[in-house]
Specification:
22% strand, alpha+beta, Alpha-Beta Plaits, globular, 39% helix, five-stranded mixed beta sheet, 240 residues
């Protein structure tokens, strides 16, 4: 990456090296601090933030940490800045935008595009750009283009297999968990994944497992053809 460009744009920005593609497509991610960002698709951002503040305040007495934190973010929200960020959807149709309070993440396939996005932010607000993440070199970029994940040490398992973040029935999740557990040392299931698959609710998020046989993912799609998000090969760059 062009480190000098980013530091000249905003001296406080963190320049980070990526170890994988984002969403199997994008090489670069720009993170922007933007409290209230979940409201940017609203026709009236200021009104939507006000309504969300009222909703959070109604539940605040329950003592939920998230509600207290969300209320703090909403009180910090700058509707004018959020309105300018909402224009990114129309000005840059080829990027992906993800909002997760209090941050907006913009994903792009090339550095010139993500630089253009960053430059479109008003200079007074560029201090809110927290970080830029991308391949450290063209060599690394070429490796990541093969749907690999770079690791620092030679991996015990060759593949990391991600589930999609969406709803699946309890029966489907338990069937998949039973199958994975039957494979023994052929796979390693994270504690979070085991918990997500066995909970009574329908949602899965942030869940994956490791395996030396990517055909395990193929078998899981026979249980549910829509549950696997991606299969990534783990590569130690020193061994390439």
């Amino acid at each position: 990456m062009d480190i000098s460009f980013w530091k000249n744009l905003s001296p406080s920005i963190k320049v980070l090296s990526s170890n994988k593609q984002f969403y199997n497509e994008y090489f670069y991610r720009l993170d922007i601090y933007a409290p209230g960002c979940k409201s940017i698709r609203s026709n009236n951002i200021a009104l939507d933030i006000s309504k969300r503040c009222e909703w959070v305040r109604d539940y605040k007495r329950q003592g939920s940490w998230y509600n207290r934190q969300l209320y703090k973010y909403l009180k910090e929200a700058d509707a004018g800045f959020l309105h300018s960020l909402s224009n990114l959807y129309y000005e840059y149709p080829d990027v992906k935008i993800r909002t997760e309070e209090p941050k907006i993440s913009v994903y792009a396939t090339d550095e010139q595009m993500i630089q253009s996005v960053a430059q479109s932010i008003d200079p007074d607000n560029r201090v809110k750009i927290q970080s830029i993440t991308g391949p450290a070199s063209e060599e690394v970029k070429a490796i990541l283009d093969k749907h690999t994940v770079l690791v620092k040490k030679p991996p015990k398992y060759k593949y990391r297999i991600f589930f999609k973040e969406k709803q699946f029935s309890y029966e489907t999740r338990m069937q998949i968990l039973a199958y994975l557990q039957s494979l023994g040392d052929l796979v390693r299931i994270t504690d979070h994944t085991a918990e997500s698959l066995s909970r009574p609710h329908d949602w899965i998020w942030g869940s994956y497992f490791y395996s030396n046989d990517k055909q395990v993912a193929t078998f899981i799609t026979l249980i549910n053809p829509d549950i696997i998000r991606e299969v990534s090969e783990l590569v130690c760059l020193n061994n390439k």
